[in-house]
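call fold(seq) -> tokens
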Amino acid sequence: MPTEVEQLAAALPAAGIIRATRIGLALAPQMNPDTWRGLVTHVIRLARTTMGARQTLTAWLGDMLVHHEAQGRGWIAECAAAAGLDAGTLRNAKLVCARIPVSCRHDALSWTHHCEVGLVFAEPGEIERWLALAEVEKLSTAELRRRIRSHLAGRTGGTPAASADTVATFRLMRELRAAGRMLSCQPGFGWHWSPDTAQLALAELEPIADLIDALRFRVSADVVPLPGDLDGP
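ret:
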């Protein structure tokens, strides 16, 4: 009896796909743009109609977004809305897929294990070290997260780099507070804008949306599983 992931993989269009796994989608380097768009549409449809395999579908979309970078600002949010996913989840998936190619992923680990590592580390050697550790020691995602945080606390505690990061954080918080105060004094601000102006504003604010998504991820990471954690290893 084929697994749910095997059934989803069998239903994918053959063109442009080298290999479909539980934790990623290897795509042909020179895929035709029309073929790519058709594949994105197909996977989005699967995400809307399939109850399980959320980790797999998120990983597939992340790989497809990495494959075709030049889609314009707001494209990730559009894909997420169409697929019924959180935009932050899809942004994280794209980052993880960019840092950990399909060929470097560990089949014994879950997609969420890869997210725990890929969202924190960018250097390939360090990424492989942590993935190998998680596999060999059979770490849960929660334990892997705890180990990574303990490692980072020991590496950065009290260093000049940490102090510089703190200064940058306070500067950013100051700017955000100022913007927040301005908006709180003008309730309904933006409702009278034309659709074109609103679209331009959304494009300009995308880095702030990314920050909000990242902060929500960090706040919730200690108390709830990441999207798709319940799909299994």
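Residues 160-184 form the longest helix (25 residues).
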